[in-house]
Amino acid sequence: VCYGLGRFSSCVTARYQLGFLLMLRDVLKVPGSCFVYDPLFSPSEKQLLEKLGFQLIQKNEEGKRPVNKRTLFYMPHCGKPLYNNLLWSNWGPQLSNLVILGNSLSNMALRLLLFFV
To answer: Cα(93)–Cα(95) distance, rounded to whole angstroms?
Structure first.
């Protein structure tokens, strides 16, 4: 699952992130569908993603996707609320199925602690 890829038609960084996602999918030989969502995707970006074999998530899940099997979430530069929702939606035994490739959770926690000091 990929959240927060960005507008790759107009942003060089987002194009690199898409390239990384394509390589990651190939290297890991991801079984089944690879889902993507960003509220900023244009119609032409959505069309290209489908041609590349990705399955578009149609509505904004706000990161609240529960998992019941090992699932990789690629979340380049997503905000704390999205991480919070994903963790909260899987808090319990299923948390061990969650693999997140994204921002440092330790750094987020540290910044939060420093905010209250």
So the answer is: 5
Separation between Cα atoms, residue 53 and residue 88, nearest integer Å:
29
Question: 12: how many CB neighbours lie within 10 A of its CB?
Answer: 8
* Burial (Cβ within 10 Å: 0-12, 13-18, ≥19) of residue 24: middle
pTM above 0.90, yes or no: no
End-to-end CA distance of the chain: 35
Q: What is the dihedral of CA 43, 49, 52, 55, to 10 degrees?
A: -120
Every domain of the chain and the residues it spans: 2-115
Per residue in 25-80, pLDDT (tens digit) is 999 998 888 999 999 999 999 999 999 999 999 999 999 999 999 999 999 989 88
| SS3 state at 2 | strand
Structure tokens at 86: 């994903």
Q: In whole angstroms, give the CA distance from residue 55 to residue 24.
A: 16
